[in-house]
Structure formats: structure tokens, C-alpha cells
Amino acid sequence: MQASITIDVEHDCPPFLNTYRGITDGLPRLLAVLADNRVRATFFSTGDVARRYPDAVKRIVDDGHELGCHGDTHARFSTLDEKGARRELQDASESLRKFSDVRSFRAPNLDLPEVHLPLLAEYGYTLDSSWGRHKCGSYFIKPDVRFGIRRIPASISPLPMRAPSPIRRAVLALLEAPIVLFFHPWEFVDMSRTGIRLDCRIRTGEPALDLLEATIADLRRRSATLVPMRELQT
Ligand SMILES: [Zn+2]
Fold first, then answer.
1. What is the rounded CA–CA span in Å between residue 128 and residue 200?
2. Residue 46 belongs to a domain with what CATH number?
3. Distance from the alpha carbon of residue 6 to the mean position of ligand 1, in angstroms
4. N or C: at which end does the chain have fewer Cβ atoms within 10 angstroms?
């Protein structure tokens, strides 16, 4: 069985904060945990982060991870017309492809109207993970191919992976291959005193890092091979 750890690299808890503590404080810790556990992941970054923190994005690539695209400014694609969607894809692709051959995409908020899907192919993307099994109301939707793009859903929202371990394990056991988990760098910073929405701050920081390590171990107990998304066989 294959599984992917994916990280959406963006400013902190969009749209609630405009800080980048996830990039400056969370990302180095996250990269250390992944290196310690010999996990290669997929990092979907905004173009904005790549321009502000080029050294952070370079380190992601140097550590052997896949760099993917998470839009340019974290605008929701459902709020964009074709021109706006093109601007996001153009600007993000230009900023991110300075670091790596970026071919995988995930829309902010897993929100990509089908009308924009052909644009992904036009801008050179071959894999899209902009939908979530938890968002479609079905945990049994399968990967498919549309407009020549492999669409592989995220398996579940990040929050259950920060739940107490009995719950986290029970949820994990229900997920079908390919398992695609997603996280954010800001989850690995203590957000407990930011006053934002509870699900954005509960068990953030060190507890989230410990839970990520436990999740990696649980996946391996299920004989999962952890690979970047581009290496998933669907
Ligand atoms: Zn995001």
C-alpha cells in the first residue's frame, strides 16, 4: 500500500492570520522529523511563500521532497474568473519552477471548480489533489484522470490526525489506499494563544510533531510505503 504525507505551505491559518511563523519556526521542525523518519513528502507551496522565503523552499527541494503548487496568494479558485485563475497559476508556476520541476497541484481550501481544471493542463500540471474524500461526502471516491490530469483525493482533513491517539488510529485504519494525509507548517507552531478558530490551534506545536511521528509509525505498521504524490501509482 502506498501513502503520501503532504504539506500545504502557506502563511499562518489563512484567512485568519497574516504571519509566517509556520515557515520560520514550524517548517524546520517538520523537515527534521521527516528526515529522522526517512519520509519524502510533497510540499504544495504558494508562490507567495517561495518569493518571501526562497531558502525555505530550496531546503524542501534539497531534502529530496517533491515541490508542488498551492496557488500564488492562497485565493480561493471558486472566487476567481478565468483571468484571475490564470494569474494565480502563471505567477505561482513562475515563482516555484525556479526551484524544481513542479507538476503537482493542490488548490487552496481544496477548492477547484471543474471549469478551471483544463487550465492546470495548460500550465503544465499532471497531478491534482484539489479534492478531499472528507469534502465530497464520500470516503470511497477513487482517483481518476480528467483532461489528462491524474486526480488523487486527499483522504481526510488535518484535524483528526491531531486527535487523541485512539481516535486518530481508528480514523487512520478506515482510510483506503492511496492514503493522502495533509498538514500545514503552522500546525507545528504553538498556536494555542492566537485566539483563532479552535480547530486551527488545538494541539498545535510539539504535540502535533509527536502525533505526526506516531502517524508515520502507524502507516508503516500497515505496511504502507510513504512516497511523494508524483510517485503514487493509481
Ligand atoms: Zn492552504
1. 25
2. 3.20.20.370
3. 11
4. N
